[in-house]
Amino acid sequence: MIDALYSDRILKLAANMPRAGRLAAPQGTAEGVAKLCGSTVVVDVVLDDQGRVADFAQDVRACALGQACAAIVGESVIGATIEELETARDQLKAMLKEAGPAPTGRFAGLAILETVRDYPARHASTMIPIEAAAAAARQALDRTRIAGAA
Predict the structure, then answer these.
(1) What CATH number is given to the structural domain containing 55?
(2) What is the pTM of this model?
(3) How many CB atoms lie within 10 A of CB 24?
(4) What is the extent of the structural domain holding 87?
């Protein structure tokens, strides 16, 4: 099990966390928690005037699988739309839970997590970084729409 889940590539991703930390003035913030293992991720997002991610930070306290997912998200998120984030989230979930195809597009790197499919107890901790990123971006988009309407 250990070798199948924790490949050299996953461990390298986990060891090199891009965009670690918190933003001083985020437009959106979301926290994800994997109840089974206690992994947590807090994501801060700032959007540009076209609704794309302009700045991003993440505080990750997770297992190597969650850290690997966060690393991929951190590498790929700048310039992403909310639709791209939500599609990546949905594709990763389908890949893990329904044996669906690997994520495509901007977040295609999430395909490396396909080995997690056979370990349902690890799904939640693997998913929380992309779930939090999508939720933070959605919150930021909703806030900018409300501010623009005022």
Answers:
(1) 3.90.1010.10
(2) 0.91
(3) 9
(4) 2-149
